[in-house]
Amino acid sequence: MNPFRYGQVVKGKDFCRRPELVTGLSAQILRGQNVYIQGERRTGKTSLIFETVRNLPKFRMVWIDLLGSKTSDDVLKRILTAVMSIETGSGFLDTILRKLSHMKPVVGVDPITGLLTLSVDAAVELKPDSIAGILDLIASQHSKRKPLAVVFDEFQDIMSLKDAPETLAQLRSKIQFQSDISYVFAGSIRKKMDAIFNDPDSAFFKSAVPIHVGPLNRDIFETFIRDKFRIGKRTLTPETLGAVFDICFHIPGDIQQLCSALWETTDRDETIAASSIPAALDLIFTQELKGYETILTVVSSQQLKLLTALARLGGKAPMATAFLKNSGIPQASSVRRGLGRLMALRIIFHYEAEYRFVNPFFRAWLLHKKL
Ligand SMILES: Nc1ncnc2c1ncn2[C@@H]1O[C@H](COP(=O)(O)OP(=O)(O)OP(=O)(O)O)[C@@H](O)[C@H]1O
Ligand SMILES: [Mg+2]
């Protein structure tokens, strides 16, 4: 069986150890300290949080995923759903129904898991001022004997709400008094996370300790990958491994995806040389082609020119003369506009003074197609 996992939270034997981060995060959670975790996409933020809390004795996690949330009503309903995941005594349900009666909560049973679910009548629109009541309810389930860690994942999406400042203010005003509970806020869009935690005008200004999640330790991750290939009696040459890391810009999720494709396109007892990589990439291209084609329909021909130039020349100095000459886009101002649009579309992002592709396989595809 293919041992590589991607696009999902990894845990246990699928989690490549990152001891410093786990130790650091554990210490903060045990202290009841609030933390904000920032890192690029697919670097392992969610997995780090799950694995850390899983290994903290007695701890239970309330995981609230804010990905794509559009209204404060939606955010509140997601918090409520997460509340039900707290494993608690039978009295808790009564408490919820009583304390939140004004929201008209509806208890149901998930037909697949058999677990109780909590929802709110769709006709009831929840407002930010209901946050306090729900967070009080969560806090009532926290104790030394059965501590909680409350996680807001993809927290940056809260900035897309129309009433973002009010929602943030309500959250903050409650959380600051729950000093023994650790709240963990994770997000991947640095600009938005910075606006929440580092802007003096934000309700969350300096309210949490930052933890940065970058690539995994190279040696530890290489050993992890080689060991996985070894299970299937396959050997990876150092050149192949090096090329995999480079193509994927060291992003753990992308590395696992490419390794998974390499596994699919090679055989037992094979020594996998770098010449095996194109077939693995082809497999990924086939799987992702629809997405690439969608991108091509939303970018202009000028933006496509810019993308291919970024793929070929790299994104360190796209306004420099050499880039302009090579890209066939003579004006730096056109490049600047194009970069802005491509970032807004989340096709590229800015990382340490470099413009990079959000999906490194799309970059590889552009190069392969010679578009
Ligand atoms: N510690 C790890 N060991 C092995 N693989 C990892 C590890 N952390 C992350 N990965 C790889 O990255 C993928 C994404 O992990 P995860 O969802 O935790 O990242 P994330 O940073 O939360 O991503 P997103 O920004 O998309 O939410 C995993 O499916 C796995 O392939
Ligand atoms: Mg995540």
The distinct ligands, each listed once, are: adenosine-5'-triphosphate, magnesium ion
Distance between the termini: 36 Å
Secondary structure category: alpha/beta
Please give the largest β-sheet: 5 strands, parallel
Average pLDDT, rounded to a whole number, is 93
Share of residues in helices: 40-55%
CATH superfamily of the largest domain: P-loop containing nucleotide triphosphate hydrolases
Rg over C-alpha atoms, rounded to the nearest angstrom? 23 Å
What amount of the residues lies in strands? 5-15%
The H-and-E topology, N to C, reads as: HEHEHHEEHEHEHEHEHHEHHHHEEH
Written description of the protein model:
By secondary structure, the chain is of the alpha/beta class. It has 3 domains: 17-212, Rossmann fold; 216-297; 299-371, Arc Repressor Mutant, subunit A (Orthogonal Bundle). The protein has 15 helices and 11 strands. It has a 5-stranded parallel β-sheet, sandwiched between helices. Strands 3-4 form a two-stranded antiparallel ribbon. The longest helix is centred in the C-terminal third of the chain and has 22 residues, at 277-298. It is globular. 36% of the residues are buried. The structure holds adenosine-5'-triphosphate and magnesium ion. Residues 5-10, 15-16, 18, 39, 41-47, 188, 216, 252-253, 256 line the site of adenosine-5'-triphosphate (ATP).
